């Protein structure tokens, strides 16, 4: 069994003005949202189900972690003008420090610019039905996974960036 710590990543907004408000802008990596115990066969799709829904006294409901994720996604900047219905419901997985796998099958390139913390390595959607530990490539007892709101990912090439066009 492996312990998965779940974080959220958003691109910090540009610092163009000053305000007396403090901590009203989010950006970078969040504190740990939740931890999950997974087996060697748990897939990203199965983890997504655990992140989003839980059964409480016979009722299905959204988890607190998912509600927090949706709220933070709503607050962060929609860099790529996604439609409102996708802003709070769509997210992708990534690894906080790039994983330990020698090859990068299943990972997408990321773009780092300016004074922002290095973004996570985005995991391709087409491998979400494969076991997490196979894709991340680790046999450690603890791993970090990141959820990235879709608004932080450029749709033309699936890169985490605030730039509109690929250079």
What can you see in these coordinates?
The protein has 167 residues and is an alpha+beta fold. Helix content is 18%, strand content 28%. It has helices at residues 44-52, 64-75, 84-87, 132-136, and strands spanning 2-10, 28-29, 34-38, 53-56, 59-62, 91-95, 107-108, 121-123, 142-149, 153-154, 159-160. The strands form 3 sheets. Strands 1, 2, 3, 6, 7, 8 and 9 form a 7-stranded mixed beta sheet that branches. The protein has a two-stranded antiparallel ribbon with strand order 4-5. A hairpin with a 4-residue loop joins strand 10 and strand 11 (159-160). The chain is globular and about 45 Å long.
How would you sum up this structure in a few lines?
The protein has helices at residues 44-52, 64-75, 84-87, 132-136; strands spanning 2-10, 28-29, 34-38, 53-56, 59-62, 91-95, 107-108, 121-123, 142-149, 153-154, 159-160. With 167 residues, the chain is of the alpha+beta class.
